[in-house]
Each structure stands twice: as C-alpha cells, then as structure tokens.
Amino acid sequence: xxxxxxxxxxxxxxxxxxxxxxxxxxxxxxxxxxxxxxxxxxxxxxxxxxxxxxxxxxxxxxxxxxxxxxxxxxxxxxxxxxxxxxxxxxxxxxxxxxxxxxxxxxxxxxxxxxxxxxxxxxxxxxxxxxxxxxxxxxxxxxxxxxxxxxxxxxxxxxxxxxxxxxxxxxxxxxxxxxxxxxxxxxxxxxxxxxxxxxxxxxxxxxxxxxxxxxxxxxxxxxxxxxxxxxxxxxxxxxxxxxxxxxxxxxxxxxxxxxxxxxxxxxxxxxxxxxxxxxxxxxxxxxxxxxxxxxxxxxxxxxxxxxxxxxxxxxxxxxxxxxxxxxxxxxxxxxxxxxxxxxxxxxxxxxxxxxxxxxxxxxxxxxxxxxxxxxxxxxxxxxxxxxxxxxxxxxxxxxxxxxxxxxxxxxxxxxxxxxxxxxxxxxxxxxxxxxxxxxxxxxxxxxxxxxxxxxxxxxxxxxxxxxxxxxxxxxxxxxxxxxxxxxxxxxxxxx
Length: 494
Known about the structure:
- This protein folds into 3 domains: 8-78, no CATH class; 95-184, Tyrosine recombinase, N-terminal domain (DNA polymerase, domain 1, Orthogonal Bundle); 211-399, hpI Integrase, Chain A, CATH 1.10.443.10.
- Helices cover 47% and strands 10% of the residues.
- It has 18 helices and 8 strands.
- The radius of gyration is 40 Å and the shape is extended.
- The N and C termini lie far apart (84 Å).
C-alpha cells in the first residue's frame, strides 16, 4: 500500500471468507473501518484474490473521493466536480492554484542549493518541456488540476516522437520528483502520479572496444590534444567529467596513487553564457576514490608535466592560468571542455575508420577487459566507483563469460562423469566373479622346498602362457581346483 493514500487496506479472513478491510478517517477526522467481502473462500488462488481486491479498492477509492461513504444519496445527485476526477487535488490551498509553470519555477529555486549542477539541469530540462506541453494542450492548468492522465499523455507523446524508453523514464523520474515536493509541502494531499505506470526501459548493453581496438585507438590519438584524456579514460574507466577534474595534487608520485576528488561540468552562467564549473560534489560517495598509479599513466603524466612547464615558459604572460593546477589542458593552459572531448573523439575515430563508440564507452571497455581477465565484479565496482554492486552487475553481467565457461565445465564434469560411471557398472543380471579361495589352510602346512619351487615355476608358467577364462557360477567348485586357476598365484607366492 502506498503511504501517500489517505486510507489503508488489508486482506483478512472471516468465517471462511476473504475480506478487504479499509481503515480511513471521515470528514470529521474520526477513524472508521469498513469490511468488504470478496466473495472468495479462504483457500483461493492468489491471482483470483488480487483481481477481486483491485476491483474492490477501485470502487472504494471512487466512493471515498466523491463522499459516497458518508452520504450516498447526496453524492449520487451531486454534479461532477474536479474532486471526482481520479487523483485530482483534494485541498484548496493557495499553492494548488498556481499554474504548473509557476510551481515548477518555485520548486527548482528551492531545490537548487541541494542538487548537483548536472542533476539540477536534468530536472529543469525535463520539467520545462513538460510545462511547454501542458501550455499547448491544457493552457493555464494549475497544480491542483493536474492529474495522472496529463503526465501519461506527455510520456506517450515523447515515445511517439521517437524517444527511447530510457529517456522517457528520465522524464518520468524528474516530473515525479517535482510533484513529490508538492505533497511534502502539503500543497497537495495526493501525488498525481501514484497510479501512473513507469515506462519500461530497454536493458542497456554497453558497447566497448576489445584489446586490439584499444591499441588502434591509442595509435590514432598519438600526439593529439586528447591523448592523455583518452588513455586515462581507458585505463581507469573514469567518467568524462572525472578525467577533466583531475589536478596535479591528486597524483601522488611518491606513494604511486591517483585520487578522484572533483569533476568539471559545462553549464550556463547568470548571463546565459556557456561556462566551465569545477565541483567537489561528486555523483555518489563511492565516486570519491583513490586508485593505484599505473606505470604507463605515470610515465605519460610526467611527460605532460615537462611539456606544460616548457609551454608555460614559452608563452609567458599569455599562458592561461584560470584553471592552473589541472592536468587536462592544452598547450596554452586552457582547460579542455566536455563538449570538445565528445566532438573531437567522434571526429578522430570517424576519420580513421574505427568502429563508432562514445567516449563514455571507454569506461565500459575498461570493465570488459577486467572481467575478461577474471577480476571479480566487486573489485570492478570499486574501481569504477559505482554506488552499489547491482549497478555493476546489471551493466556487465552479460560480459562475464569466463564464469559461464566454468559453470559449463562443472556441470559437464558432474553429469558426464555420472553417466560414465553408470555405463561402467555391470548390470544386475551379470554373473558375479568367482570367489577367491582361502589360503589359510595352505598356510598351516609347510611344503617342502622342492614342492614350493615346483609351484613357483608352475605359477610363473601359467602367468606367462595363457590365462583361463573364469568359470560360470552356479555350481560347487571342485577341491582339485588349483590356486592358479582361481587367480591366487601371487598370493601363494607370498
């Protein structure tokens, strides 16, 4: 049961029948309880019970919102109002009369100090487009008039425009977050999207380069402005903003470590101009991490440091010092922007005929190589800085082929070995092997040396010539049967 609903319900058994029990408060605030029978016996299928409960809850919901629970006769003759519409606002607060555009502006202003810049831009963009859609199809609609079908129509519209399920899901989450604030601040009693179905997003399968393709990539970027950026992204699997946010003070050449502590993002300033911003608030707490300094990257960074000192001396005062201390700058000291990384990367791989890949997919390439070389998924999660294990598993579980090979070998070994054992086991009707004749009696008698040597020679002769076939069981053995015939020649010698 969702906590935002003004009533609660459970299923209960009474006199051998299934009931739905509602707990709610009337208009005077008095607590009441209502039992509604499902018509089903105590022992019924879960599917039938769920269907009956859904129908009863829908009917109760309509009665609760229209007032039929307290005055059924009056509610039947009353005209249809906005309150009777599914999930319309049930309060007349001043805030509920704001237009959606006004409300979104207020919400964004209140949330901005508590959100990362990229998160704020995502919320702002999604909700602004939603308001633009409402202004065209429902001009002047207020916060209190908004219903779930308005949001559903907008999401269906975006799908119709060709948006992927994952993109529409981002719209859903951004709009839901905005309206949740209205419920929290008691502008609305109910969330308008409570009964809305979240769009299904197709599972994303990451694209990546293999080892040979990465070697080709490094070759085409040799001497390019993005050479260090590409190598760091491929070796460490860092996000674009994390690579650009690296400073020299984050690299410890003594203890051989590199720390991810900040990021660089691009956004518009107060005057509407595009500008680079440095943020120390990273995506999650696990994003802030310290990793070992790989020798290859260490060598490149030392070369980069010498080159920077050379150009700083050559350029003199014209050398850009706005982002002094950052690693990913050009020869004139200017910090490389995220947009340049994306456009330049696409241009270079296209020009050189490499398979199309996003810059962010270098992160996936790093993960795929780690998996292919038997690095545990938990270690990859910590290396990439994912907030939890499930994110890493969902992204890269389809690449964990070595684990599947081990599973295949294990099941084959178990089942094939069992089948081979069964095939080697004699059938139940097979004749048992002849029993060995006891040697206790022969041991009590001391044979002469001549007889013993004769027996040894006879035993050796029988062993080297021809071994007689075992006799069929079922009859008593003759006393005259020699130990040699019963396979006891070696025991006799002992």
